[in-house]
Amino acid sequence: MDPESGGPVEALRGLATAQVNASLSVGVLATWKRDADLRFADELKAIGVDVRLVGPCYGPLCWRPGLARSVRETVSGFDVVHIHALWEDVQHQAARAASTLGKPYLIRPCGMLDPWSLSQGGWKKSLYLWWRLRRHLNRAAALHFTTDIERDLTKPLGLTSWAIVEPNGIRLDEFRELPERGGFRGKYGISHEIPVCLFLSRLHPKKGLDLLFPAFAALGQPGHLVIAGPVTDDYRATLEAEVSRLHLGDRVHFVGMLRGREKLAAFVDADLFVLPSRQENFGNAVVEALAAGVPVVISDQVNIWPEVRDAGVGGVVALEVDALAGELRRWLVDPDLRTQAAHRGKELVRERYDWEAIAQRWAKHYASLLSRPSR
Length: 375
Fold this sequence. Notes:
Layout: H1 7-21, E1 27-31, H2 39-46, E2 50-54, H3 67-75, E3 81-84, H4 89-101, E4 105-108, H5 115-119, H6 123-139, E5 142-145, H7 148-153, E6 163-165, H8 183-188, E7 196-200, H9 209-217, E8 224-228, H10 233-245, E9 252-256, H11 260-268, E10 272-275, H12 284-291, E11 296-299, H13 305-311, E12 314-317, H14 321-332, H15 335-352, H16 355-371
Parallel strand pairs: 1-2, 3-4, 4-5, 5-6, 7-8, 7-10, 8-9, 10-11, 11-12
Helix pairs in contact: 1-16, 3-4, 4-6, 9-14, 12-15
């Protein structure tokens, strides 16, 4: 439940909150590691979610003595089990407990079955898939994918479970009263006359910053790049060295992880949101940017790119520096293009990515799973 874990945790928080509003009885069991930020757990408890935290856990599988017993006790009190992510012991124990107790369970892979993701870790992931994970995937009542592309990328694995495609969402009420423009720029000394590109995500090599920095340097026009998100000290040092090499030091701002109104203020003061990721099964921050009226430029490996392209709310590029630089330039020099995209983006979010509507659909999915014969 640590916010610094990125999109999967943020999506779980949003889904659980909306399901409570849809009158479902919701429980969350999660493991935690030392020094974890558990504020999301406290938020869910405050609205009536039955949150059970098991930890601290250890090792790559996040193992903890007594975890299996805690999971089984929790699962026994619920009708449907919705498992988020794949590679830790808690997901294995949840699938095993649900099978033993005759409870239908779903698994949300969070993009971890994409070919790119499976290639990161090599034989270890292949071994784990053969050892225990494939069995859980095939015995699941359903697999929960957030995009059609994520679902289609798993077809080579030959999985046999029913697929449900439901996107992640946002809470629309959080975007109805946005901060005044200028506050974020003023904090970092950025002129109102200079265009700002915002990158907001967990900072990781897969996110394409090695493409973004040289593309930004190649723009040939004034501009600032704001880099927001959690990062390890080692990787930040690598990124700062690249910024220095490209002589971008006074135009790139590392601002750390932004939350709440501070994050909204960054969106409000941005002219363009950019995410040139090498793999992204959904892209929560892309939807947040659109909800705030910010056009987006994303790679064609961010799996909601067809929706972005078809709605005309941003640009989609291949993983190439020149292509990225050209698309950034196209959007930054044309304020009318950005204004039109901003209006369309807000409408797209209202139509497709409202957590409250998504939670109502999940209530129907769960009821359907409970009426189906057990696998």
